[in-house]
Design brief:
It is a single chain. The chain is of the alpha+beta class and 548 residues long. Helix content is 30%, strand content 21%. The chain is built from eleven helices and 23 strands. The strands form seven sheets. A five-stranded mixed sheet has the order 2-1-3-4-5, sandwiched between helices. β15 and β16 form a beta hairpin. The longest helix has 23 residues. It is elongated and about 75 Å long.
Length: 548
């Protein structure tokens, strides 16, 4: 019997594997069913193509090298399996048994792997997807992909191959996967809002809304877009399940326990039990970040990425720490291009060539766990070389800072290490924002500036928990703040990148609590940037060149 939300999510993922396979077998239980499903899916694809381009080009559409792709929430897939069984027993014809499902399919090819299952997936998953697509020849021999959506906004994907009417279910399972780009299309948009979800510009540090974009001397090409505002929920924010333990600012927006704590002046030393609680919290934060990063693809709307983060954290029993923190209206920060930090997820679709930072913090087990990563939108070749260089330098700066952590190190020394590496690589370090202590409070002592010659106080001791999160710019280090009161941008409009970990100082060094997992998406584009650079370690995120 499940005792925690996290255990329930693990059980749901296992059940989704079984349900996806059951649907594959129900659709292709005999040769007639398998062929009938393929015929119906192909007809569906041709009808959609006719509607979209209004020409006769769809007449040449075929299953060759295209798999039939079906995606639905877990509960819906379970229901479909039961309905198909009842229909079969009732003697319903093949067209009726498979028709409803075929009507929600699409044909996908090898090149659409990221659109279908997410980016940064293991090579074995990509190969299973490609193998399934390449199987397809006609209505008797083709591939089927079933993607099952979980309540935590990750998916489980199963692959099947029909050869001469007989189904083979591949052993490889993609878990976790991302929702497809087609499933992530918002039901409400600024151009076509629904009754429940309106779209407005954010103002007054998240506390206000406006119909018109505020006037401002914008520093770069980016402009704010409207954010979703759901009239059904408190202050228009995404709903948090009743069983989730909330922060003290969840309704008031004022973190009284943090603001009035002595830990704003004193550095707390975690014991072994407290460190393990913080570690458990950080695993949830890492899972949420990974879920969002997998879903980053051209055309995806940041507001939907925020929904993934929110669902992942709350379905695992946590509260998204940014939500209503001093009025912040969303569950994570999404900062694009020249945005340094605290970007508010909005309706501007991501485009090829963007860089985007995802900053996630979860509050669960009584602790906050904070981390972020910057990733490319599109393929590495879609992004300019300066931006890729920026990401590499920012990641190296993080690890150079982490490598300096041990008892006795002065907190101010982190800034010297980070700045030395950034300046040497023609980048600058933001001075306005810094790393911070983190434990049962979101932000507390110590302050961890990343710029040189800072005046931070204190020495590191065993049990100190804090973040290192250098913000690195291609141009000037100075920043400006948008009229929403949150979004920090570079003063000269140059791009900015950042990586962050939560860590605890140990007796002989450091323990990175938000470390990447074996399932974390491989999204670092640095391999082969120069002849002297070694490949990035996809598990830790460490570059060989970053070691001191």
């Amino acid at each position: 019997m499940s005792t925690t939300p996290a255990e329930k999510m693990r059980e749901a993922a296992v059940k989704a594997r079984e349900t996806a396979e059951a649907l594959l077998r129900a659709l292709c239980e005999d040769e007639a069913s398998a062929e009938g499903f393929a015929v119906a899916a192909l007809k569906r694809a041709k009808d959609v193509a006719d509607e979209e381009d209004g020409s006769s080009s769809a007449s040449g559409l075929s299953l060759k090298s295209r798999a039939v792709f079906f995606e639905a929430p877990a509960t819906a897939v379970e229901t479909l399996v039961k309905v198909m069984d009842v229909s079969k027993k009732a003697g319903a014809p093949v067209e009726k048994r498979v028709g409803a499902i075929a009507g929600r399919t699409r044909l996908v090819g090898v090149k659409e792997v990221e659109e279908a299952i997410g980016c940064g997936t293991p090579r074995a998953d990509v190969e299973a997807y490609e193998k399934t697509c390449e199987t397809s020849v006609d209505e008797k021999t083709y591939g089927i992909i079933v993607s099952v959506g979980l309540p935590c906004s990750t998916n489980v994907v199963r692959y099947g191959r029909v050869v001469n009417g007989k189904l083979e279910v591949l052993e490889r399972v993609t878990d976790p996967a991302a929702p497809s780009v087609w499933a992530m299309k918002p039901k409400s948009t600024p151009e076509a809002p629904t009754k429940e979800t309106q779209w407005l510009y954010c103002t007054d540090r998240g506390m206000g809304r406006a119909e018109k974009m505020p006037n401002f001397k914008w520093t770069g090409d980016l402009r704010p877009a409207k954010i979703s505002h759901d009239e059904r929920y408190f202050r228009g924010m995404l709903a948090v399940p009743e069983n989730v333990v909330r922060t003290d600012y969840a309704e008031t927006s004022y973190p009284r326990s943090e603001a009035e704590s002595r830990l704003q002046r004193e550095m707390y030393e975690l014991n072994e039990r407290e460190t393990e609680q913080l570690r458990k919290c950080c695993v949830v934060s890492r899972g949420a970040l990974d879920a969002v990063v997998r879903a980053i693809r051209p055309g995806v709307v940041p507001d939907e990425l925020d929904r993934i983060c929110h669902n992942y954290i709350t379905q695992h029993g946590g509260y998204p720490s940014p939500l209503n923190y001093y009025g912040f209206p969303k569950s994570c920060c999404i900062s694009v291009n020249e945005v340094i930090c605290h970007g508010i997820p909005d309706a501007r679709p991501l485009v090829k060539g963007d860089i985007v930072n995802i900053d996630v913090t979860a509050y669960i087990y009584g602790y906050h766990g904070d981390l972020n990563e910057t990733v490319l939108v599109g393929k590495p070749e879609d992004v300019d070389d300066k931006s890729k260089h920026l990401l590499k330098v920012a990641l190296e700066c993080l690890w150079r800072g982490i490598d300096a952590v041990k008892p006795g190190t002065r907190y101010r020394d982190i800034g010297d290490v980070v700045t030395s590496h950034a300046v040497k690589n023609d980048c600058s370090v933001v001075k306005t924002y810094c790393g911070h202590g983190i434990n049962t409070l979101f932000h507390c002592a110590p302050n961890v500036p990343h710029y040189a010659n800072n005046k931070a106080v204190g020495l590191m001791k065993q049990g100190h928990s804090f973040t290192i999160e250098p913000m690195i710019n291609l141009g000037d280090w100075r920043d400006a703040t948008w009229p929403d009161g949150w979004t920090a941008v570079t003063k000269d409009g140059s791009r900015s990148a950042q990586y962050e970990h939560t860590m605890v100082c140990t007796a002989d060094g450091v323990d990175v609590l938000t470390a990447r997992l074996p399932t974390s998406p491989a999204v670092f584009p640095f391999t082969g940037e120069s002849d002297t650079d070694a490949a990035v370690d996809h598990l830790t995120g460490r570059l060989a060149a970053a070691s001191l």
